[in-house]
Amino acid sequence: MTPKLTLRHLPPRRLLAVAAALALFGGQAEAQSTAPDVGAAPAPAPTENSEANATPTCALGSFHCARRPLNYAMCRPNAMLEFYDPTLSKDSSLRDTSNTEVYAEQVDSSDQTVYHLQGRVKLERADQRMQSDTADYNSDTTDYDARGNVRYQEAGQLMSAEHMRGNTDASTGIADDVRYQMLESRGNGVAKRGQMLDAQRTHYTAVTYSTCDVGHHLWEIRSKDLRIDKESGRGTARNATMSLGGVPIMYFPYFSFPVDNRRQSGFLNPTFGSSNRSGFMLSTPYYLNLAPNYDATLDPRIYVDRGLMLAGEFRYLNLIPGSSGQLNIEYLPNDNGKTAPNSVEQTKGTDRYLVKFNDSSHLIGPWSFNTSINRSSDRNYLRDFGNDLYTSAIGTLTSSAYVNGGGRWWSASFGADTYQNVDPNLPDSVVQYKRWPRATFNLNLPVERWLEFGADTEAVAFRKNDVVEGNRLDLYPYLAADFRGAAWFVRPKVAYRYTGYELTGGYQRYGYFGFLNPNNPNSPGITTPFSQRSPSRSLPIVSLDSGLVFDRNTSLFGNSYTQTLEPRLYYLYVPYRDQNNLPLFDTNLMSFDYWQLFSPNKYSGADRQMNANNLTAAVTTRLLDDNGVERLSASFGQIRYFNQQRVQLPNGANTVSAPTDWSGSDYVAQLSVQLNDQWRLNSSYQWNPHTRMLAGNDITGKPYFVGRNTDLGAVELQRRIGVDGIVNFSYRYRRGLLEQYDASAVYPISDRWRILGRWTYSVLEKRTVEALAGIEYDSCCVAVRVIGRHYVNTYNFNTQHANANNAIMFELQFKGLGAFNSQAEGLLRRGILGYQ
């Protein structure tokens, strides 16, 4: 019979020889799992828990999907040390309160001090188990000695050795011929000898590490000498070599790395890439852990076609109480590269830079100060050094600084906005006015449960060289009521809008005049101009929004739904005011869409307020499933105009577009369908029902009419393929401005291979705007991604000439270590809707 002992009162420090081994190899595994990934801890990757390895599903239509966790599903499920027992408890919190069970064929404690255990020795406590052929333990000195097939398992790791010896009081120990495997980070390897110097310091010789299957290391890191210091959170390795497929690819005579989640100074993963504009690029960032609340990163880069650049990042938190922010600087002296074609600026031989600064600081009470500064040395900077279409397509850099405050019923701000043109093909005149300064105050005060009083106010000083400048005050108080029941609502609103100006310069040169026409004072004409330095506009705005909601139970394709029918009427009245003498500082005509059917103004700024005597009629129907999720939504509506739309934008010097004679707006339709989680369809359509006669006649001698055209059409289809595949198709059309096809896909060929691509084609320009193709390979411990891309990065509207960039990106990821180049992931997540 095998003796069994239950040790109920033995002090925890004397539980067994394995007590020191726990600390020893726990430190080793923790250090090894982070050693090559300088600056970051590895993500947990359980070996046999398939749910933990599952990719979280990204909802269809999401613009940003969560990153896929490291996937170890392709690893062999039994690729663990042979003594692993999956039935052993995984709850390490029970150690202090659990008894230690000791099993052995022979137990000798005749001298009352030394315990001699022989024959299939096994000790268990909660999630811990140690096995060996023999084990000796001295309860007085706390020396231990375990020999022969020493095996240890706990919730986080496995470990085996031929011999372990040491002292639990001194926290020392030595193990020979070690094999280990981490169950949470999947790291595994061997060591010739592991030595625990004390509770905080360990030393290993001839140690290896990999996250590949045990016995099948596609990649591996070897170090002749490895030291771990838990107190400082640092490890040092000497003579370390990384090999891929048995071939050494990197050698480090010495490097330091973190062994826990504490931030530590050190080199980060290098990045590399290539583009037509700057040639091959190599970056080797170095992280500086300066203090618990601030740090910095120095990023020296080399661009083969341009020269050396030094980039840096500084982050801080509570450097001043209540503050947080980030400063990024890029600087390249004496640029050697060529100036971009058709550029209005010469950059060769100049110093080039980019500065980004963001700060948020609490001042007092509800007040805070927010700053965002973005400046570049020249207009070509983002085109030359941007690494994707998103960056290179930016045409304006915005800088702002504001004091903001707010409460339950109010909000206020005071600050300034300025803008920099970074489009090399456009003059500075296209940049919008600086708002220098700008103040806002918004009020939303409940008077009764169904009644509220509010006001939107803004005061701005607009500044811009060589054009009209001035100050504007916009006051917009309103009184709104909300009457509603279970199936109806009525929302009347009465508002008054006053907008006044004080023009400070340039207004006489640019034709901001009031026009007097004695024959027709209600119609603008170029007769007797008189300059106005302080024009203004004031008018009431009245609206009534009402609707009904009907619902019924229905079924579709065997599923039950709740169907709603929601008719809605919106009446808007705004009297006409002649506004031709008002400047245009920040106002444009907004794109017409479904929500414009219920908007009190079709202009984006305060410089124009449309006149209206309109009635919008619209209807929406929805299908809601049993959980209340909207599976289908269809809407249709139109505005009927009882009066002409007389407020128009200028179409030339001292001339204004003629009032419209439309009896109604475009018909607007929207459809959104997602009957299950595998596919979705969104579409919108606008049709112009009106005709208009062009000057002259056609060849038949009859009046020539055009119209009844599609003004806008858009279709977007998204289909999920398996867990991590997606197909997108979209068509976008806006008459006279845009017609594009856009298709993208991530298609899983197998568990290991995925192909991906995107193609965007402009019908109007008859050219490809962007094309991307790539392939991904995923295995147990290595992932590879290769992407080729072509995209238009500049377009000259005057010459109608487009410049394109071609690039190839390569990314190699050793799972558990991090990627050597992570730029491709951001590009794919922005370019392919639903990419993970």
Give the SSE map:
Layout: E1 4-7, H1 18-34, H2 50-53, E2 100-103, E3 106-108, E4 114-125, E5 128-138, E6 143-153, E7 157-167, E8 172-182, E9 188-196, E10 201-209, E11 219-229, E12 234-244, E13 247-258, E14 266-267, E15 271-275, E16 279-283, E17 286-291, E18 294-303, E19 307-317, E20 323-332, E21 352-364, E22 367-376, H3 381-385, H4 389-392, E23 396-406, E24 410-421, E25 434-448, E26 451-463, E27 469-481, E28 483-484, E29 488-505, E30 513-516, E31 528-531, E32 536-548, E33 550-556, E34 559-574, E35 612-624, E36 630-641, E37 650-652, E38 655-656, E39 667-676, E40 679-687, E41 691-697, E42 703-707, E43 710-721, E44 725-734, E45 738-748, E46 753-762, E47 767-778, E48 782-796, E49 801-814, E50 818-819, H5 823-831
Antiparallel strand pairs: 1-2, 2-4, 3-4, 4-5, 5-6, 6-7, 7-8, 8-9, 9-10, 10-11, 11-12, 12-13, 14-17, 15-16, 16-18, 17-18, 18-19, 19-20, 20-21, 21-22, 22-23, 23-24, 24-25, 25-26, 26-27, 27-29, 28-29, 29-32, 30-31, 32-34, 33-34, 34-35, 35-36, 36-39, 37-38, 39-40, 40-43, 41-42, 43-44, 44-45, ...
Measured as a percent range, the helix fraction is under 10%
User: Mean pLDDT, nearest integer?
Assistant: 81
The CATH superfamily of one domain bears the name Lipopolysaccharide (LPS) transport protein A like domain
CA(first)-CA(last) distance: 57 Å
Name of the top-level CATH class of one domain: Mainly Beta
Overall outline: elongated
Q: Please report the total strand number as a whole number.
A: 50
> How much of the residues is beta strand, in percent?
over 45%
CATH topology of one domain: lipopolysaccharide transport protein A fold
Low-confidence stretches: 1-54, 514-530, 694-705
Name the CATH architecture of one domain: Sandwich
